[in-house]
Write a structure and sequence with these properties.
The chain has 357 residues and is α+β, with helices and mostly antiparallel strands. It contains eleven helices and 14 strands. Strands 9, 10, 11, 12, 13 and 14 form a six-stranded antiparallel sheet that branches. Strands 5-4-8-7-6 form a five-stranded mixed sheet. It has a three-stranded antiparallel sheet with strand order 1-3-2. A hairpin with a 5-residue loop joins β4 and β5. The chain is globular. The relative contact order is 0.13.
Length: 357
């Protein structure tokens, strides 16, 4: 991976730097209500609890009272009488309470696993190969209404890769800063992902042996993202060199996402990205990097904080990779929903050089 290659060339970054920061967002509204309900079950909540929950405690308690999840009495909040033991319903693996159930049709529809709703359509769409304890299963049917995926064991020499179209809209800009050649922003965004098809690829050789189209509904979630403008000089140079601007943006996005775990304790799968030569909310070329979990987890904020360092180290990574056109060690991504198309490594170098200067 690009991060592995970076450490191979610069071991001092691994052995000499401080540990990357572990990031959490206790104010994430997608998890805070569940935590508050569990806390209130153990002991009534009071206004003094903002020392633990932050400034958003008061407004969250009021909204939970309106939703009849809590009831207040003499300055304290208790679970409503109709609330059952709340910890039983808290999903400790994701921020979503909505899951898809995976049923093995060969064993009388026995439940074998659950998958988070906001990634289910890319993992258990009809025709997908799903791995359960390392064993492949073929998804034969996806019930969108009942939130169930039916699978059967499959002894096949291929795996599947979903093709996704992702759109991002800016809801609210929280912060912005001038980095010299370009401005960088942090804000709340709405991400819409549509799985439009999938490829069957042979194991080991990566040969594409088939491609199918899918008709699935889009999925939406709110999260936090950073985004930045592109220096006009870089756009002009890319045009003069007859390189692919969209491919350069896409390659830059991939490489930045690959190296952000250098600064924050995360995996590249905890992040998503969108790049476009023209974004309707800004009217210009833009690269977005967003938290892949609803509500955000603090990674985008860290990226915003260290954006200049991120650009410099990403430039070093891409420049030092010996490939000519881009490879999995620099600008290709194993989780790209567009199957790494288009990519232009030389255009990405021009963009990163202008940003990191």
């Amino acid at each position: 991976s690009p991060l592995d290659q970076y450490f191979m060339r610069h071991p001092e970054a691994l052995f000499g730097k401080r540990c990357e920061e572990a990031l959490i967002d206790p104010g994430n509204r997608y998890v805070m209500q569940s935590h508050l309900l569990c806390a209130a079950w153990e002991r009534p909540l009071t206004g003094r609890d903002d020392a633990y929950w932050g400034d958003s405690l008061g407004s969250t308690l009021l909204s939970m009272e309106e939703a009849r999840l809590l009831r207040s009495r003499e300055g304290k909040w208790y679970p409503s009488p109709t609330t059952a033991y709340p910890a039983e319903t808290v999903n400790i693996r994701s921020t979503s309470s909505q899951n898809y159930t995976i049923l093995d049709a060969s064993q009388g529809n026995k439940q074998i696993e659950t998958v988070d709703a906001h990634v289910a359509l890319s993992q258990v769409h009809p025709g997908a190969i799903y791995l359960h304890y390392g064993e492949p299963y073929l998804v034969t049917e996806l019930d969108l209404t009942g939130r169930c995926a039916y699978v059967v064991p499959a002894d096949v020499p291929y795996y599947t890769q979903a093709k996704e179209v992702e759109e991002i809209r800016i809801v609210k800009t929280l912060m912005q800063k001038d980095t010299g050649k370009a401005k960088c922003y942090l804000g709340e965004v709405e991400v819409t992902t549509t799985v439009v098809g999938f490829r069957r690829k042979m194991q080991f050789t990566e040969e594409v042996i088939g491609e199918d189209f899918l008709d699935l509904p889009p999925s939406h979630f709110s999260t936090v993202a950073l985004w930045f403008d592109l220096p006009e000089e870089a756009i002009d140079k890319i045009g003069e060199a007859h390189l692919d601007l969209a491919g350069g943006l896409h390659a830059t996005e991939h490489a930045c996402i690959a190296l952000l775990p250098l600064f924050a304790l995360c995996d590249r799968n905890d992040l998503g990205g969108v790049s476009t030569p023209f974004h309707p909310d800004t009217g210009r070329a833009q690269i977005f990097i967003h938290d892949a979990h609803p509500g955000g987890t603090g990674i985008a904020e860290k990226g915003f904080e260290v954006i200049r360092e991120l650009w410099r180290e990403t430039l070093r990574l891409v420049r030092e990779c010996p490939c000519e056109d881009g490879c999995p060690s620099c600008v290709q991504s194993p989780k790209c929903g567009n199957n790494n198309q288009p990519l232009d490594k030389q255009a990405a170098l021009m963009i990163l050089q202008a940003l990191a200067w």
